[in-house]
Sequence to fold (418 residues):
Amino acid sequence: MEPLRQNLISCHFPRSHNADIDLLLLLADSTRSQGISTLTFIPSMKRILSILILITITTALLIAYYTNSQSNLALPRAVLQQARPLLQNLFHRAPPATSSAHFSGLPLIPTSHLATAANMTTPRSIKFSFLAREQSEGAGAVVRRSIGTPKLKNFTPFLMLDHFRVPPGAGFPDHPHRGQETITYLLQGGVDHEDFAGNKGTIGPGDLQFMTAGRGIMHAEMPVQSEDINVGMQLWVDLPANLKSCEPRYRDLRAEEIPVAKTDDGKVMVKVISGRSQGVESLKDLAYTPVWFLDVSVQPGGTITQEIPKGWNAFAYTLEGLVTFNDKETVTPYHNVVFESDGDVVTAQVEDGADQAARFILIAGQPLDQPVVQYGPFVTTSKEEVYKALMDFQTSSNGFERAANWESEIGKTMGRVR
Fold:
C-alpha cells in the first residue's frame, strides 16, 4: 500500500488532502482484509454484495484522485458521507455509548501508597534534564514543548507537555481529539473553550480544565481577547485501553477549589491540584488516568521532601528561580527534570541567600502497560485503530457524528483545523 500512497501524493494534491489519501488507502486495505475474513467465516450474500459495493466505491475514489480534476477533488468526501451507513454495517460499528455519572477512572492515591507513605525516605535520582525550547504551534501560539519531543517521547502515561504563550488573535481553533486526556493549567490571562456538544466556558489565572476525549471530541481553545498575553501549561495524558472508547467529559477546577499545603516553617507552599502533599489531599475524580499535579513555590532557605507513589513516572518543570533537586543538581527555568523510577521521594530546595523564590510543577503518573500509537490528536494502541480514527473523523461517525459541519463561535475568525 505504501508505494500506492506515494504515487497518489506525488500527484501534487493540496497538503490538506493527504489525510483523505490515507483514508482511501485504508478503505482499500480494509476491503481486502475484511473480504477475506467475511468470505471465509460468514458466507452470506449480503456481506459479499456489501464488499463488492465497497470495492466499487474505493476504486471510483482512487480514480477521482488520480485524474486530479477540479470537479473530482470535491467528490471523495461526498461519496464517503453517502457510504457511511454501508461502512458502519460492514465493520460492525458499535452504537454510541450512553453517558454515565459514574466515575470510571483509576484510584488517584493507590492503597499501597497510603500504607507505606510514612516510611518513604528513598530519594529519586535525576535521570536527565533538558531545556524546553520555543516553537510555533496552533495558529500564532508559541510553546515550549518538553514531552512529545525526540528527547522525551511517550513517557507513559504522558504524551505531551506544552508551556504555552498565546497573544490575542492567536490560539487553537477547531480540532479533534480521541483516546487521551488533556490537563490545561492557566498561569496568566484567560482561555475560552467550546466543543461540538455545546459545552463552553472560560478559565482564568490559577484555574484548570480536565478534558477526557474518550471516543471523540472536537473543540476550540482560544485566548480571551482582552488580555495582552495568555500563559499556561497543557499536559496530554494517555487513557487506559479499556477507557479509550468512553464518552467525552470535562471538569473545570477553579483556583479557589485547590487546597494548599505548607511546610512547617512556611517557606514552601504547594497547590495540591491533584494528588497529595504534606498530608493534604486534592479533590478526586478529576482525570481517569491517575496523575499527581503539584504547583510548588519555594522561598530562599526553604526545603520540601515530596512523596511520589512507587513505580510511577515523575518529572518537574521549572518556571521561576533556581531550584536544587536532591542536593545535587541546580536547575534554571524552563527545564524538564526527569526522575528515575526507583525511590519514593523528591527533595527540592532553594539556597538561603538566593535572590528570588523558585517555582516548579511536579507531576507523577501511573504507567500504562500498553502500546502508544499516535497520529496528531488521535492516540490509540495500534496502527489499525489510528486508521479507524482517521476514517471516523473524516466520515463523522463513531463519536464524531456532531463534528460534521460544526464550527465553534470562538474559532470562527481563524477557521477550522481539519
Residues 1-92 form one domain.
